Amino acid sequence: MSQAKLVEMAKRNLAHVKAGTVDQAPGVSRVPAENYYDPERWRLECERIFKRLPLVLGFSAELRHPGDYRSLQVAEVPVLLTRTEEGAVRAFLNVCSHRGAVVVPEGVGKARRFTCPYHAWSFDNDGSLAGIYKEEDFGEVDRSCLGLTPLPVAERAGLIFVILRPRAEIDFDTFLCGYDEILAHHHFDDCHHVGRQTLVGPNWKVAYDGYLDFYHLPILHRESFGPEMSSDALYDAFGPHQRVSMPNPRYLALEERPEETWEPARLIGGVWTIFPHISIADFKAGGKLYMVSQLFPGPTPDESITVQNFLAKREPDAAQRREIDEMMEFLAHVVRDEDYSTGRLIQKAVKTGARTDFLFGRNEAGGQRFHRWVEEVIHTEDDALGKLFAAGIDG
Known about the structure:
Elements: H1 2-19, E1 29-32, H2 39-50, E2 55-59, E3 68-74, E4 77-83, E5 89-93, E6 107-110, E7 113-115, E8 122-124, E9 129-131, H3 135-138, E10 150-151, E11 153-156, E12 159-162, H4 172-176, H5 179-183, E13 192-201, H6 204-211, H7 217-220, E14 234-238, E15 241-245, E16 271-274, E17 278-283, E18 289-297, E19 304-312, H8 318-349, E20 357-360, H9 365-378, H10 385-391
Antiparallel strand pairs: 1-20, 2-12, 3-4, 3-6, 4-5, 5-10, 7-8, 8-9, 11-12, 13-19, 14-15, 15-16, 16-17, 17-18, 18-19
């Protein structure tokens, strides 16, 4: 099923190559400029998007073995990811059930048990309460009710999705719209997590607009990789999730072969985005290298945090490690000094009132679709979220 979908997408790309065309939305759309800086709007997005929807917070590659864990903070929510002795991935609010202290400092490691630094209550990596310091003096409590608070979690296609609310109204399969079956062709679950770096950017939507936009590539990035790129964009949508690609003349060679022999590895190029905050791109460094960018709102409407994660197809040797380090440095430069430097200027300029709207052209259909989904999600109540994702908003 998923391979058939990849073939269908390749055939659509091929048709554009032959016709010399690109995707065209019905018209130009407008997004209110204040959506990028208004504090009330920003708070609404944090609460109704980032704290209600599944977010990619980890990778199978970094929780490969029982006992592996990662502690992180997302939208001011402390989260603990673990892999249990049975091999399951679990997610918890990283908050002690005694008096609310953060149990595990941010970072990665391996442990069967975690001890709170405040009063030494301890928890197994399945979240259950394992020990109470000086229990004989504490008083009688029901341990079964005092484990770490679990969060909804799912492991799909080598990615770990978590919802930051303990009792979520949407299930993962409904949210993913089958997109995880396509993403599985990247084989992230067989990769090695080889690097992570963090960048500060403008408002999260200013930043994310760029990940869906090929229009700027040969212009803004003219001093880095832009001369090799086209501004032409094709969009394949799975509900709110989108793959952005360019018309690919290499697909012409596939026409001479039966469709069942079209290898998925040749069909998965482009930038793959997962609503509301993930961008996936691949590079030739250390063999094959994926950059999975996690975008989160920052502490104010004017800032965002981007975590660039790097997944390699194989454990790198010394030479490949140097290639990966060089590529990481290059990609940090491109995003920080080209994309986000421009985005920061946009963030200042948008507040001047020079324009009341931002425009998204007919070949910027990805940005148009993204903002439609942002709008729909923040105005949809909890009990209707599942129906929204099941039905889609694009017909």
